[in-house]
Design a protein that fits this description.
By secondary structure, the protein is of the alpha+beta class. The protein is 30% helix and 30% strand. Helix 6 (198-204) packs parallel to helix 7.
Amino acid sequence: MPFPPPDEDLLSGMIDLALAAGANALEVYARTIHVTRKSDDSPVTEADRQGEAIILEGLERLAPSIPTLAEEEAAAGRIPALGDQFFVVDPLDGTKEFVDRTGEFTVNIALVRRQQPVIGVVYAPALSKLYAGRTGAGAFSMRIDKAGRPDDRQPIAARRAGSAGLTAIASRSHLTPETEAFLAKLSIASYAAAGSSLKFCLIAEGLADVYPRMGRTMEWDTAAGQAVLEAAGGRVETYPDGNPLAYGKIERAFDNPHFVAWGAR
């Protein structure tokens, strides 16, 4: 089996696939959205299934030697042997936001190496914005024009919190008492809310300082956003023990522990 391409080429290919899946999502978004339920009662749409098929086919062409952990495939019980390197795909993060038409849904593609996400792409099609990052090479955002072409690439970096207090960002759909209790211990100057993996990206571009998640998430929900944030100089830690949030947790069925995402500190 051939060796995978260099990381720069992997990132470029992942961006192209996120744009393709995002274009498909916008086509579904523009018409009546049909929602069904998976075995865990979470919603799924044709945009989830079609987007995942687009990404999986493209990743197979891009890097056939690298396996992929993908949300809908995992829900169907199709999980490959992952090893030390694998892609993680959420073809439509924020399905509830998609159905509610808030615009705050994303396409997430990450590459995990030795349990840590090292390349990530987060594309918000309805917001015409894409975020990407690579460990050691930094992070950036791009505007996506009406033809689906990337433009206006800008480097982004997580900020250090100022003395005036932190800007906290929390899940729009999943705010819990545990999250509120955690935030009550911090010096919070302002709050923001967002859906999907955009919360990581807002910290990555220096618009917020902390995102606690004291509720259930899956690896495909967080891998791409974590990669972007950490490439931008932030970090994601498990709570309360402060370890790096790791991937390939088959013993947990790829469920994440509680975590906190931070800007630069």
